[in-house]
Prior knowledge:
Elements: H1 3-10, E1 16-19, E2 40-47, E3 52-59, H2 72-89, E4 94-103, E5 112-123, E6 126-135, E7 140-150, H3 158-167, H4 174-183, H5 202-210, H6 218-232, E8 234-235, H7 248-254, E9 256-257, H8 259-272, E10 277-286, H9 291-297, E11 301-312, E12 315-319, H10 325-331, E13 357-366, H11 371-381, H12 387-392
Parallel strand pairs: 8-9
Antiparallel strand pairs: 1-2, 2-3, 3-5, 4-7, 5-6, 6-7, 10-11, 10-13, 11-12
Helix pairs in contact: 6-8, 7-8
Amino acid sequence: MSSDLTQWLDYExxxxxxxxxxxxxxxxxxVSGEPDGRRIRVRYFLNEESHRLMGKVWFGPGTQGPPGHVxxxxxxxxxxxxxxxxxxxSGHIVVAAEITISYREMLPLETKCVVEPKVVAVDGxxxxxxxxxxxxxxxxYATGRGLFVTxxxxxxxxxxxxxxxxLGDPSMPSSAAxxxxxxxVDPETFLQPTDFIEAAHPAIVECVAAxxxxxxxxxxxxxxxxxxxxxxxxxxxMAKFGKDEYIASRILAGGKGFCVQxxxxxxxxxRAAGIPTALVMSDLRDHTLPEKIVAALGTNTMYHxxxxxxxxxxxxxxxxxxxxxxxVAKKGYRLVEFDGDTDALQAATTQAGAPHAExxxxxxxxxxxxxEQMMQAFVRAYASADAAALxxxxxxx
Length: 397
C-alpha cells in the first residue's frame, strides 16, 4: 500500500472525522474487512456539524470485472454498506430490503473514489437512502437507491451486544429513534422541486415574492409562510384521490385543501424561500369529530395526516398548518402558533379543556409526496367506511 494512498485514505478534511463504522466484526466484514488488501479499501468519515457521512474508497486489482475496470458488483457492495452506514451510526440495526444500482460509466481499476450516502425519507422502521460513487473530480460512476429496514437486536445474536457497546442500545423509545433518524437526513434534499412540490413554479415563486419576506431571517420567513398557508388556504375535511389534486400550483390557485394538500403547498413555498422543508406523514386521532362522522368512517383517527417540518438552526421543527384561525375560533380549538423555534402542533385539548388532537405516530420525513403509500393507507384504514353516509354529509369528492 503506497504512502500516498494511505495518506489520502486516512486524511481528515473539511470537517470530516474518521469514524469506526466497521468496528463490529471488522475482520469479517465483506466490504471493509481488508483495509490494507488488494480488493476494496474503505474509510468512513462523519461531519458532526452537518451529520453527513462520507466514505473514501479505493478499488484495487482484486475488484476487476471487465479488463482494467471495476466489477459492477464491487461498486454495488460499497453502495450497500455506505447507504446503511448513517442508520448504524445513529444506533439502528438495519439491513437492505431492496437496492437499485444505476451504472453511469465503467470505473478504471485503482481509482480513488468518494461515496456519499444520504437519507431520503424515514417511514417508521423503513429508511430510504441514496448514494453515489464518484472520483475526486466529481465524475459519477454509479448511483444507488435503497430501502433499509430495522431488525430486532436479537436477530444478530452476540453481534447485537457489540452494537450496544459501540453505538449504545438500539432498542430506544420510538420518539428518540425518530429524532436520531431525522439528524441523518440531508437538508439539501428538501430544497429540490418535485412533480408535486413545485418549488420552482412561477406561481409559487411569485407568491413568495408577494409576501415580501426576502429580508427576514429563515425562522421569520418560515413563520410567515406557515401563517399564510394556515389562514389563507381554506381547510377542507375531504381527502382527494387524484394525483393532479396534490400539485402545489393547483392547490395555490384553488385556495383550499385538506391537510396533505396544505402541507404540499407549504413545502413548495418553503423550498422556494430557500428553507429546507419536508412533508411529514402522521396518524392523528381527533377526539372532537362528531359521532356521525366517526360512525361513517369507522374511526376517529386521520391516517396519513399531513404536516411539515422546517430545517432551521440545524434541526427539524414540525409544524401543522391545517387549521385556520377562523376555523379554530369557530370550533373552540386552540390556535396552532409557530414562533420559528419550536414545534407547532395541534393541541391536546380544546379551549374548554376537552380532549382534541392526539398524534398517534409520525411516519417520517418525506422529500416528496408518497402518493401511492398514502392511497394504500387510506384504502386499508377506511375499508369499512360507509360511503353513502359520507356522501350524504358531503364528505366524498
